[in-house]
Amino acid sequence: MTTKTAATIGAGLREDGAISDAIGTILERAAHYNDQITDTKAADPGLASDFDAMLKRAGENKGRGLLYPSLQTGAGNGALVEMEDGSVKWDMLTGIGVHFLGHGNPKVLEAQLRAGIMDTTKHGNLQTSYDAFEFGEKLVRLASRSSNLKHAFLTTSGAMANESAIKVCYQKHAPASRVIAFSHCFMGRSVTMCQIGDSAGGRQGIPLSTQVDYMPFYDPAVAERMGGETKFIDMSVNHLQDYITRYPGQHACFIFELVQGEGGFNVGTRDYFKALMDVCKDNGIAVWDDEIQSFGRTEEMFAYEMYGLGEYIDVFCVGKMTQACATLYTEQYNPKPGLLSGTFTGATADFTVGNALLDELEHGGYYGKDGKFAKHHALFREQVKGLMEKHPDWFPARPDNGELVGGVGGMMRFTPFGGDKAKVMKACRAAYDEGVICFYCGHGPFHVRMLPPLPVFKEEDWGRVFGCLERALGSVASGS
Predict the structure, then answer these.
(1) pLDDT value at residue 462
(2) Helix-helix angle 348-363:106-116, to 10 degrees
(3) For the segment 350-393, what is each residue's pLDDT rounded down to a tens digit?
(4) 122-363: which CATH topology?
(5) How far apart are CA 144 and CA 445, in angstroms?
(6) Predicted pLDDT of residue 444
(7) Cis omega (within 30 of 0) on the bond before 175?
(8) What are the domain boundaries of the chain?
């Protein structure tokens, strides 16, 4: 926490030595329990009836059963997390990123404890403490190293960050109302965002009021069939220009997922994105970079840094692993008073943990071609390659002839069983039973997706994780 005025009562509260000693004692006691978790563990049969009752209550409250029987106890150690049935699993999904610093992390626990002595649970745009502004300030400082992003508006979720972004774009380019997005994109589950997201199930029964034009995301297999990347770029630029010609002056923004999340951990190229962004700049269309899932996980902190595209970004959204969520924008896109507001921006712990995470990402040595994330990604690919060589029948060619292993940095996916949805989903459930939490992504073919807590994951543990995955895939292949 940042102390702005040393003479206040609040400063005395934050700096009280007895409170710091008490927090230290709590951290020691928490470590005493969390350090006992060192490997996966099967469920305790004696807890089965109580656990089943908890799952039933959770399902009845939600209106449908849980996707995984995943109810955490609050204890964990790094990439390992304990469930209420006594089982311990490798968390290779991290709640799609919110547990990116792992479980039982003392830095996270301390940040939460520090937040706990503050008198405010939830912050808002009308009343807040400095922790929220410090979080936004850090984001802007980091983002502006290689972009023109200058301001941050904080909000409660990724979907709301995207809602703020589209409002900024609409206002700047009024009365333009059309949106350009990539095929297979995911934008969130609000009424507007589910219409932009390229998923029929996500907008079933929703009145369609947002006009969206879809562009193809870069596909190396298609580019190869066309005769190379240049041919694919030319085709896509012509496609984009056709939209602009058909609807002159009607497009407010082009939403770029520089690494697609739900769409399949698809990765593009700098030349491809740059060509499309150049067309946007020539036609007064906002370049909106949605990094809600990819932020912090690529080979640079920001995906636009990895591609060297920061100068093009007008509006930017971040969330998930950052705990608090935010919309960033340049001075040119700073909206008029009244457009953005909201009762809540987040809880105190969102900002204290978010600040700790940003500090960790900035100083942890994670980025660059030789950074820790790139090394982990290479080890992940080695493990998948080993499985493919050992069990080639589990890895038939994809229908689209795409790569069977992909992603970048901490965004990892592989494609068993030809990307068949039923088998991939069954593999994820079997992996959970074997002690690995993972999920699927893509819209056909489907992939096994992992978002591991790389800052706390040990290189030597990749073999242990893939030992569990091998058993899971084997059970699906055998039909058991």
Answers:
(1) 98
(2) 150
(3) 999 999 999 999 999 999 999 999 999 999 999 999 999 999 99
(4) Aspartate Aminotransferase; domain 2 (3.40.640)
(5) 37
(6) 87
(7) yes
(8) 39-104+369-480, 122-363
Please tell me what DSSP assigns to residue 259.
B
In one-letter notation, the amino acid at residue 130 is Y
**Strands annotated E in 387-446:** 405-408, 411-414, 436-437, 439-441
CA distance 30 to 75: 8
Q: Strands, DSSP E only, in 394-444?
A: 405-408, 411-414, 436-437, 439-441
324 in Cβ contact with 98 (< 8 Å) = no
Tell me how far CA of residue 53 lies from CA of 65, 66, 74, 91, 281, in angstroms. 12, 13, 19, 24, 57
Q: What is the mean pLDDT of residues 201-230?
A: 95
Q: Residue 4: which pLDDT band, with cuts at 50, 70 and 90?
A: low
Beta bridge partners of 91: 437
In this structure, CATH architecture of domain 39-104+369-480: Alpha-Beta Complex (3.90)
DSSP class of residue 315? E
Q: What are the tokens at 467? A: 């030992």
Residues 294, 302: Cα–Cα separation, whole Å: 8
Q: How far apart are CA 316 and CA 271, in angstroms?
A: 20
Q: Are 267 and 259 in contact, with CB atoms under 8 Å apart?
A: yes
